[in-house]
Amino acid sequence: MPRTLQHPARLVPLTFLLAIVVGTALLMLPAARAGEGSAPFLTALFTATSAACVTGLVIVDTPTYWSGLGQGVILALFQVGGLGIMTGATLLGLLVARRLRLSTRLIAQAETRTLGLGDVVGVLRLVLSVTVGVELVTAAVLTLRLRYAYGEAWADAVWNGVFLSVASFSNAGFSTYSDNLVSFAADPFILGPIMLGVILGGIGFPVLRDIRRNPRRSDRWSLHTKLTLFGTALLLLCGTAATLLYEWTNQATLGPLGPGEKLLGAMFHSAMTRSGGFNALDIGQLHPETLAVSYVLMMIGGGSASTAGGIKVTTFLVLGFVVWAEIRSEPDVTAFGRRISREVQREALTIALLAVGFVGMGTLVLLTVTDLSLDDALFETVSAFATVGLSTGITADLPVAGQVVLVVLMFLGRVGTITVATGLALRSRLRPYRYPEERPIVG
């Protein structure tokens, strides 16, 4: 392989592309479809991209359109996509060889967002142990609930429990039920484990490792861990409160439920908009105000080096602290007693602006090729780019051009805007000079 392709910024997108190609080919097999014939190319491509990029948007009904083989391929794609393709490959190499070469450490470091090369092996081992542990426990709870509370046969209960468990921790949003999870809207023993799996998967493995090292000493946690946990809790509470406020009397969503069930439904929706992608409420019936709040939550997403999408919680908070420091005319940007470097500030600004640009272009294209309202087009675009998977119910009715736009956005959102931009850029080099400084007027 050429040396230019071995750079992590280029290798990570290429491996995701390869997974999508393989997944598309497998889903086009006649055996992967429940009905006669094979799936059309665009249907297979859209589903494979959505699964590998752990999004959850679908243009066909997963449990009725795909056979057991097709659903198995989808599960494998979002399991691998959630872990990170290079992370999975590196884990396999670690298990076989017991050690990692420097080049392999660099690739794994790029995909897991590990801060130091010395942390790579520890993070990878934690990835494996946490993933297996959380998914097994969640699958066991869901299986028992589906078997004894809903009377499903053991085989069906086990399959549905495993599928939903892996989908929740991977933040994939795929469901083996045609209504996603609407039929379980009042069941805390179904929604609770799935919500917990989504949150744990969306925090990020470096944070989990930091907590495991110092479970009772939050003062020893890194700034990244503090920002992620603070932002996750804040956004979950704000999203829950906003959903309760706007949907409390909506008879098509929370209205018919009791107070405790309304709280569960609102909290579940808040957690899912952060990249989980499951829905226990009819998204198409939400009030415009709730949809607007959902735009923001989806765009922010979860933690860095996690299975979640969006621009990430730390990016959002870093930009917030930059604004706060500018308002107060402070020379340094600080958070939790630590100074945030200018390099991190520039990276956060770049990620946010690229994300806004991609979403803006995607929304414009959808408005051009369809008759959608701005609300529906924007919701679909943000959901695809942030790899959330929630939809107001229009995905299957989009024209070919609209579905292709979503495929591109899902890929860009999962791989990362900076990774894509870096991979496309020419080789960087340091200039032996600096230009004269001048201050343009801004604001």
Determine the number of helices (DSSP H or I, runs of at least 4 residues). Answer: 18
Q: Strands of the largest sheet, in order across it?
A: 1-2
- Alpha-beta content class: mainly alpha
Q: In angstroms, what is the radius of gyration?
A: 22 Å
Q: Total strand count, please? A: 2
Order of helices and strands: HHHHHHHHHHHHHHEEHHHH
- Helix residue percentage: 55-70%
State which percent range the strand residues make up: under 5%
Write a structural description.
This protein has 443 residues and is mostly helical. It has one domain (3-424). It contains 18 helices and two strands. The chain has helices at residues 8-27, 41-52, 62-65, 68-83, 85-97, 102-112, 120-148, 154-169, 188-203, 205-213, 223-247, 259-276, 288-300, 313-327, 342-369, 374-385, 400-415, 417-424, and strands spanning 334-335, 338-339. The protein has a two-stranded antiparallel ribbon with strand order 1-2. Helix 1 (8-27) packs across helix 6 (102-112) and helix 16 packs across helix 17. Mean pLDDT is 86; it is low at 88-100 and 102-118.
Name the descriptors:
63% helix, 443 residues, 18 helices, 2 strands, two-stranded antiparallel ribbon, single chain, mainly alpha
List the helices and strands and how they pair.
Elements lengths: L7 H20 L13 H12 L9 H4 L2 H16 L1 H13 L4 H11 L7 H29 L5 H16 L18 H16 L1 H9 L9 H25 L11 H18 L11 H13 L12 H15 L6 E2 L2 E2 L2 H28 L4 H12 L14 H16 L1 H8 L19
Antiparallel strand pairs: 1-2
